[in-house]
Write the structure tokens for this entry.
Amino acid sequence: MIHASAIVDPGAEIAEGVEVGPFSIIEKGVRIGANTRVGPHVVIRENTRIGEDNRIFQFCSIGEEPQYVGLNEAVTTLEIGDRNIIREYSTLNRGTPVGGGVTRIGNDNFLMAYVHIAHDCILGDHVVFANCASLAGHVEIGDYVILGGFTLVHQFCRVGAHSITGIGSVCLKDVPPFVVAAGNTASPFGINVKGLRRRNFSSEQIQHLKWAYRQIFRSGLDIRSVVSRLEERLDECTDIQIFIDFLTSSQRGIIR
């Protein structure tokens, strides 16, 4: 299951059923879970933890040092969950000491070719990144987010659950959950109705989220006033709490 031309350090932990393709390099301290497939010419650097049933395609760089000048000799990690697909030429960097020391990828994610995940990023589950989508450092991505091709997300920004960006979007502030965002710089364009329907949100839930969207982006109110108005509807739709939590915890502000 490990090709003769692959270089696997004796200090790496390789579980049953793992495949490693020709000319791949796996360094010491790497852990790879059962049935993960690593293609040819992949480099997996030290202190990377990879779960089960992942597929990593050729020419990926997994767990490389972060692009951070203050790293020095700090030991940091990259953690990847289960059942992720990481396509060709993607680059996933380890964390930094100032960001908690870990970059974390959840489960069931699909990262297409040339995706870049910088240091200290946190990805949830069921995320799709189209080709060349890139995250700067310390970015947080919620569950079921879809980033269009060539989307760029500025450092320390968050992209909320169930949101989607158009091709070439540039996100310099937080993208709230459930929202369609597009443009340079990114602006909101309504609720991600198609995505929510695919995930079995009811028509009633979607109507409540559309109402919440209008309060946030069309009412002209400041965020504190918007939150107060949203709280009045919580008895009718508990999903609105997701909006409230996101708005009240935003550090960079939201796209408007």
